Amino acid sequence: MRNxxxxxxxxxxxxxxxxxxxxxxxxGALSSAIRCAGGIVAVEHxxxxxxxxALKRVRPDIVIVAPEAAWHGGSVLLRLRDEASFPVxxxxxxxxxxxxxxxxxxxxMACLFEPVRAAQVALTLDLALARxxxxxxxxxxxxxxxxxxxxxxxxxxxYRLPEDDAFRxxxxxxxxxxxxxxxxxxxxxxxxxxxxxxxxxxHQDVMETSSFRHADG
Length: 217
Description:
By secondary structure, the chain is of the alpha/beta class. It folds into two domains: 2-116, Response regulator (Rossmann fold, 3-Layer(aba) Sandwich); 144-213, Arc Repressor Mutant, subunit A, CATH 1.10.10.10. It is 53% helix and 13% strand. The chain has a six-stranded mixed sheet, sandwiched between helices. Helix 3 links the parallel strand 4 and strand 5. Helix 1 packs across helix 5 (118-159) and helix 5 (118-159) packs across helix 7 (181-194). The radius of gyration is 24 Å and the shape is elongated. It starts with a strand and ends in an 8-residue tail after the last helix.
């Protein structure tokens, strides 16, 4: 493995990229294209076995993977999907149907095809990062919505409120405390946890949620 973190630049790189798999000539050509497009290669690894530790340590902006048949049907892509917190771009020699199916299942954000060019790299990596941010924002929005629904249901049961009134009180409390609605909902749920008989309800979140008793409808 080669670690390129010692590269000195006068300006921040466009992306910090990890290269995983592929042949040395393919990685060399891709590294050159990345540099020409304004990025740097932060990690380069031929084998997938030890690369996950390096990715967690270096935390690149994006990972480019050139999968091989010995990697057992996209298992590296699936592990990157489940364990990594950055977008993955697939580097392929051709549009193999099986490989593209594995890429879809593995959550790959975009594909590069050899031979790569700097202009192609720039467009593909920017697209992958934009799609990844959109996906992350959507996941967060869905998670927040679930939390808000749970908190709303808790208030409905605790204070015998209709659904609309429970939501209005949750929203009013969030506005009064200048907190995002989802954060206020999490505080409500935590207050239920710490209010068990064996614990003293002295947590700050419990005190904050007392405002629900007096909130305007």
